[in-house]
Amino acid sequence: MVFVSVAKRKVTERVRRRREPYDFKTDMFEGRFEPLIAAEDVTVEEGEDVIIKVEPIEIPPHTMVLLSPYARNPYGHVLAVAEEFPKMMELGRKVEQVYFAAVRHGRIRKGDVLGVLILIELKGEE
Q1: I need a surface site. Which of 61, 105, 120, 124 has the fewest CB within 10 A?
Q2: How many structural domains compose the chain?
Q3: What's the CA gap between 15 and 7, in Å, rounded?
Q4: Where do the DUF22 domain residues begin and end (predicted)?
Q5: Does residue 126 form part of some domain?
Q6: How many helices (DSSP H) and strands (DSSP E) are in the chain?
Q7: Is 80 among the domain residues?
Q8: Residue 23 is assigned to a structural domain of this protein
Q9: Whole-angstrom Cα distance, residue 93 to residue 85?
Q10: How many Cα atoms sit within 13 Å of 92 on the Cβ side?
Q11: pLDDT tens digits for 42-57?
């Protein structure tokens, strides 16, 4: 029982730790890993899908948005990101909320990492 308690505390500490964006660059494209940070406290139930507000993330025009498939939160997974009014890729966008699928009962707190976006800047030939 002690081991479970220690393991749960370690997971909770990792979830709450704030992550900074990370830029990457290759010969063909450049981009950024952007953490999705909860902007509100939410209690989730196993099997429930909820909308959670996140700290806003600006998406520049002509940027492809991908979700990292790696689970970053012990209570569930981000299925999609959204803003109040969807916009075309050619326009600047802003992520304001996520659709979150809970896999177990728990409490998500403001500041928790929910998932990670991968932003890839699409460039034409120069």
Answers
A1: 124
A2: 1
A3: 13
A4: 11-106
A5: no
A6: 1, 9
A7: yes
A8: yes
A9: 9
A10: 4
A11: 999 999 999 999 999 9
Assigned domain for 79 exists: yes
DSSP symbols for 33-70: EEEEEB-S-EEE-TT-EEEEEEEEEEE-TTEEEEE--S
Q: Is the separation of the CB atoms in 112 and 98 below 8 Å?
A: no
Which structural domain, as residue segments, surrounds residue 89? Answer: 2-121
Write out pLDDT tens, residues 6-31: 444 545 555 555 567 767 666 667 88
SS3 content of the chain, % helix, strand, coil (to 5): 10, 50, 40
Domain containing residue 89: CATH number: 2.70.40
Burial class (CB in 10 A: 0-12, 13-18, 19+), 50: middle
Residue 4 has pLDDT above 50, yes or no: no
105-123 per-position pLDDT tens digit? 999 999 999 999 999 987 6
Predicted TM-score (pTM) of the model is 0.77
